[in-house]
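We modelled the chain as a single entity of 188 amino acids. Its sequence is:
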Amino acid sequence: MRKTRTLVMLAGALLGSVVLSGCYPLGMGLMTPIPVFPWVTERMEDKYVHKNDHRTTILPPIRPGFPPPVCEDPPDDAMVLRALPRVARGIPYFYEEFRDNIQIVTERIVDKIDPCRFYPLVGPAQLHHCHWKCTVYYTETIESGYPFPFKSVKQRVEVVYIDKDHLHLCTGGDPLLQQTAARETSGY
């Protein structure tokens, strides 16, 4: 009996030291942290947060007798920066790359409206082409601290072309159809 109690106490002490020492892989149960690479969150953000960057907007019909709509909303700075090539993922103190002093100049290239045609899942609509040329001026800094200190600063220019095309519904000349289409697409 005494021998059994000693073996149980020794096994309990051994098991307790393994569990409490941090060597047990699931020591925290469901709260055990799982290592995740830093680029995983960037990819998830691109996929779920900025999903409207590549979608086509459907707008109310163009009313006859009024001037045609103009592309007035240039791409915002965040959209232009997302369209740029990514900065190289470096290793701290070995190779690091930065972009500083960013200036963005947008310029409208194309602003035209196609004639009415049928689009699947939309119906009859007109495609409004809005193409933008975005010139990005920035300072590229490349640093290394090992095996010898090194720093390179260069002025860079990149050009990004962004299409912000959208559709205008076609209803023909019937004003009642135009009113219902405008009410359904705008919510008013």
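As a brief sanity check on the tokenised model: The two ends are 85 Å apart (CA to CA). The mean pLDDT is 85.
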